[in-house]
Write a structure and sequence with these properties.
Two copies of one chain form a homodimer.
Chain A lengths: L3 H12 L13 E5 L2 E6 L1 H7 L13 E3 L7 H18 L12 E4 L9 E4 L10 E11 L5 E8 L10 E2 L2 E4 L6 H13 L3 H4 L3 E12 L2 E13 L13 E8 H8 L6 H13 L3 E2 L3 E2 L11
Parallel strand pairs in A: 1-3, 6-11
Antiparallel strand pairs in A: 1-2, 4-5, 6-7, 6-9, 7-8, 7-12, 10-11, 13-14
Chain lengths: 296, 296
């Protein structure tokens, strides 16, 4: 019988599978800019990039980089964008069918100055780290028990349509701050006004690297907790969410291990369960805040 | 000028240095029991173990294990203990001079049944994972601002004498639960009665692997937050702590990057700063809870 913990472990292994023994990591090339790693290039992508030798250097010491003449943010961004548009027209990499016309910054670490920007849908071809903002929305009922707001993604979303999501979340686009992304996503997705969204507290980060046939996905989500007034109800804004639910923590635990949850949102919720003491080191999950140490 | 963040990064790299490119990891052997990895054996230790071929198999496929005849918790524990006592008598591995007569359980994951136990001071020779319990003690002043209790370790402690520590902390010895360890350490180190200690909330884990000349140290700390009544004062109990201080969060931030802090306790405090929103994704550290989004 697969326990709750077993299913959580399956979720975590799946979402960090780039670091499992049989991943593609040993066959990937490092993507480097300015001598520092900024991504991972799967071997099939490296083959395609070799058709653009005026832009990409051939692999050397396990790394692929841009030609030295591309020595600025703008030059690198434009050169790579031209290549990606060309590959997109050929149609050989299906992930580019999800072209978003959104740029993501590329840098070694979050605090570094971006070295270039790249079309969002192409970032997995270069294993470029993607940052996002996720907001845990919750309130306390009349007994003081927490209830968590979850959203169900629209059926028209490009990824994980119809799956459960955090109250609001979004990727960190080039040039936009974490704060502004938080305010924007809260307003657009759930009609949460800025004066309420600004009370969200930064509490955690959730990081992982997964791979699938579309490439390598190193991601790091900035997690915020937002306690909402009990009478507040999120409303559908831009239609990215089709519905909102207010779940008890028991219900949250159940859906967490169903296939109904967008996986990275599930991990953000798991982190919430840990930080809010719903998970006990000795015993696993205990959902009654009044019984921190269950008898067994 | 080295910023606060730079110093924090130095702390983190030092405490997770086993995963840096130039670590000893590629020259270590996996320590395996029952076909599963339970540790890392540095090459100098592997050489010493080769003098006990009736207990340890020679390295095969990069792994060292016990002879098959040692097929129970007791048999494995006794066999390895005999070897360690022998090595201790010879005096060639200095870490064993810190013999504690405390046993630590050895298993692949925390939830697995222990396969053997091992003398605490020897665990780094086998890179066996060590678990501990750390308690962040804090209270709110009359303005609602958090203040954190820190302890200064006794000059007679075997490791990091005289350094700053969390309110209470201790290693997880074989056969003792996380809860019992928490209650025990709170009582012994800080005279916190059980009825108060039991209100500590499990909130996080902090995991890392460092190495030094004494071996490999994979560690995972179960972290608890304990909000104390404002009038409560921890008192010296068993003498492992020589003094307690109540610091403002500004003061906590400063000492965190001094050499005055036991490093793993510093990381537990860093995790506290993140979870309690003292660290902003966009700007770094902001210590005023009322100004979540500082103007700059």
């Amino acid at each position: 019988m697969t326990t709750w913990s077993d299913k959580i472990l399956q979720l975590l292994r799946r979402m960090n599978n780039f670091y499992l023994p049989d991943s593609s990591r040993t066959t990937c090339f490092r993507f480097e800019l300015g001598g520092e790693q900024v991504g991972w290039v799967p071997s099939n992508v490296a083959s395609i990039l070799s058709k653009f030798p005026e832009i990409f250097s051939p692999p050397r010491c396990g790394a692929i980089t841009l030609r030295e003449s591309f020595d600025s943010y703008e030059k690198r961004s434009e050169a790579v964008d031209d290549v990606l548009q060309s590959i997109r027209r050929e149609g050989c990499l299906t992930v580019l069918k999800g072209w978003r016309d959104e740029k993501y910054d590329v840098m070694p670490r979050f605090c570094d100055t971006p070295l270039m920007c790249m079309e969002r849908s192409a970032t997995s071809l270069f294993g470029v780290k993607r940052y996002g903002v996720h907001i845990n929305g919750y309130c306390r009922d009349e007994n003081g028990e927490l209830r968590m707001w979850l959203g169900r993604r629209s059926k028209t979303k490009q990824t994980y349509p119809g799956k459960l999501d955090n109250l609001a979340a979004g990727g960190l686009a080039a040039g936009i701050s974490v704060k502004d992304t938080l305010i924007k996503e809260c307003e657009e997705e759930a009609c949460i006004p800025a004066d309420i969204a600004e009370t969200a507290h930064p509490v955690s980060t959730v990081s992982y690297t997964y791979e699938d046939k579309e490439g390598v996905f190193p991601e790091s989500q900035f997690v915020f907790d937002l306690e909402l007034p009990r009478e507040f109800k999120p409303r559908i804004g831009d239609g990215e969410v089709q519905d909102f639910y207010l779940y008890s923590m028991d219900e949250v635990k159940e859906v967490l291990v169903s296939d109904d949850f967008k996986p990275n949102c599930a991990m953000v919720v798991l982190d919430f369960l840990i930080r809010h003491s719903y998970i006990q080191p000795d015993t696993g999950v205990c959902l009654k805040e009044s019984a921190l140490w269950p008898q067994h």
